[in-house]
Amino acid sequence: MKLFTNKKKLQKEIKNINNISFVPTMGALHKGHESLIKKSVKESNKTIVSIFVNPKQFENKKDFNSYPKTYKNDIKILKKLKVNYLYKPSYSDIYNFRTKNKIFVDKFSKKLCGQHRKGHFKGVINVVNRLIEIIKPKKILLGKKDFQQLYLIKKHIEKNRLNIKVVPCKTIRDKNFIAYSSRLRKLNRYQNLNLIKIIKVLRNYKNNLICKKTRYNFNKIKRDLLYAGAKKVDYIELIDLKTLKKPKRNVYNLFFAFYIGKVRFIDNF
Ligand code: PAF
């Protein structure tokens, strides 16, 4: 694996590769990332992974500074998975140039996490746009756990008529149905047990809704999550993935965001 910290050197290296796949990350790699990377390595000519903790997508400095960093372990994983290139830029390497594309933030950004994390999606699209202008990949692989992010990046790519295929990848879960997430490294044992309880509550709730044994009642489910150990619940919403609206048919995903201690967790199933 070749490591680049400078975009000019990276571009020189990859300029003749016309089929490169890209997996953007903020490091602290876990089984979810591994699954995206394995898929990319299997299905493409060359794979490039980026590690860049993007300050512009965090609402506050404390959260940015405390984002988990496991660089040595990340390198081990990337080598094991036979990634061709790692791009680990500095802040200025990413932000010291004028972009060609216009940042497009679709109105779906106003829902779900958009109501609780001001400027977050604009920050995500800004950095992903810069990364794709530098790398010019044919494909970008993104996880369905962050469905809203995935959708908004796809819309930005379409709006700018970029020739990049967005490949949605399935969410990888542990034996307790918890989606892998870098931030979960910050939970202690007690908080981990609470997370297991909370996900169990949410799964039961969704199953009962589908079997029509219960009705959608945000306040009740919120109370149940707080009781199970959540510190704060940002939202729990049912969304039809086709219309991105409240479901009119019995096919939907349950989207949610809550805090355990200082750790914010999002998922949908
Ligand atoms: O999902 C993430 O890790 C980040 O939001 C991304 C896509 C790498 C942009 O910083």
3D architecture notes:
There is one protein chain. The chain is 38% helix and 19% strand. It has 269 residues and is an alpha/beta fold. It folds into two domains: 2-169, Rossmann fold (3-Layer(aba) Sandwich); 182-268, Pantoate--beta-alanine Ligase, Chain: A,domain 2. The protein has a six-stranded parallel beta sheet, sandwiched between helices. Strand 2 (20-25), helix 2 and strand 3 form a beta-alpha-beta unit. Helix 8 (189-210) packs antiparallel against helix 9 (218-228). The longest helix has 22 residues, at 189-210. The two termini are 35 Å apart. The structure holds pantoate. The site of pantoate has 10 residues, from strand 2 and helix 6. Pantoate binds next to strand 2 and helix 6.
Low-pLDDT stretches: none
Main sheet summary: 6 strands, parallel
Along the chain, the helix and strand elements come as EHEHEHHEHHEHEHHEEE
How many helices? The count is 9
Count of individual beta strands = 9
Q: What is the CATH C-level name of the largest domain?
A: Alpha Beta
Strand content: 15-25%
Query: Over the alpha carbons, how many angstroms does the gyration radius reach?
Result: 19 Å
Task: Indicate the mean pLDDT.
Answer: 97
User: Structural class of the secondary structure composition?
Assistant: alpha/beta
